[in-house]
Design brief:
This protein has 408 residues and is mostly helical. It is 79% helix and 0% strand. Helix 1 (3-27) runs parallel beside helix 7 and helix 4 (63-73) packs across helix 6. The longest helix has 37 residues, at 99-135. InterPro entries: MFS, MFS_dom, MFS_trans_sf, MFS_Transporters.
Amino acid sequence: MTTTTARADGLVRLLVGTQFAFNLGFYAVLPYLATHLGEDLGLAGWLVGFVLGLRTFSQQGLFVVGGALADRFGPRPAVLVGCALRVAGFAWLAVARDTWSVIAAVVLVGFAAALFSPAVETEVARLAVERERRTGERRTRLLGLFNAAGQAGALLGPVLGVLFLGSGFPTACLAGAGVFTLVLLGHWRLMPHRPATAAPRSFTAGLAGIARHRAFLLLCLAYSSYLVLYNQLYLALPAEVGRATGDQAALGWLFALSSGLVVLCQVPVSRWSARALTPRAALRAGLLLIAAGCGATALLLPVGGLWPALAFVVLLTAGQVLAVPAARALVPDLVDERELGLHLGAMSSLAGLLVLAASGPLGALVDVEGATSWLVLALVPLAGALCVPPRPKGAERSGQGLDHPGYE
């Protein structure tokens, strides 16, 4: 094994471990934030919802900014600053008591993720493409492993939070800050500095280029259709569980089932899809599975019990393990390598905005009795499957990224 290959493989292990640790620390705190705001601090319900929405916006909505900064300065500074801000945000949240302090701490926590997550995702995508060129291993395998590591952290994070909640929510926050301190030290020691090979365009010029890039926008729509349906885990699924059982006791187990299935199935499914499917075919197949999950839920409603909810969770998760790595794998084929971070960040930000826009109309479906709401939901991933862009002309089989249209 050459020195370059060994360093690349070591960086892969670091970034995959990072994704696990990120979600471990984050989900040790997030599931208990609403209860802390409402019960411990006495905030009104509308204000709790506003704070949680603000956290989502400061994270998902600003991914495009974090991705652009990673392009311009490299992933290492973005990751280190993001980790430091996450430590500060969690420590601040542990002691915040008045409304404005809580809001500022939550925004800081979200913005920290908007810095480090796009940087890590960009570097993983870059390494996946390089490995594909070097070894022939399809890039979806590494991207699938990255997704599985994140889900493992999301599965175990709440368990870590429970261990510390006995001592109060501030202790759980400090535990999360401790995890990110270790991540910060690990990256300070192990993550190499990768200087930019060429300066990307200005941020505004990059955004203008995205607005003209039809194939990339189609990919964003396809990815957004997955995320809109994934958001139904927090909207339509609780409503269905409550309708079927009269309470929400089973909801936590269904969430754990979803994360557990990703942890167990992501790597073998990615290995199989790398052999059997192109990324475009995998993305379409994943979206069709998600649509089938909505259809199966509608068909099973007369059966009653938790069977409709189980069908939705299992097929949604099956679609997720195919669609998410495939969508990320397609981005390097469509954009200039110098703007990979900007475009990966933009895909997440645009998807977040579309989820926000769709939440109201789809939320109204929760009150619709019977199969109608689930059949309407099925139309979203079906439309997304139609949006998967065709293979770019001139794209090499190795997956070499194409120059962004109009790049000067």
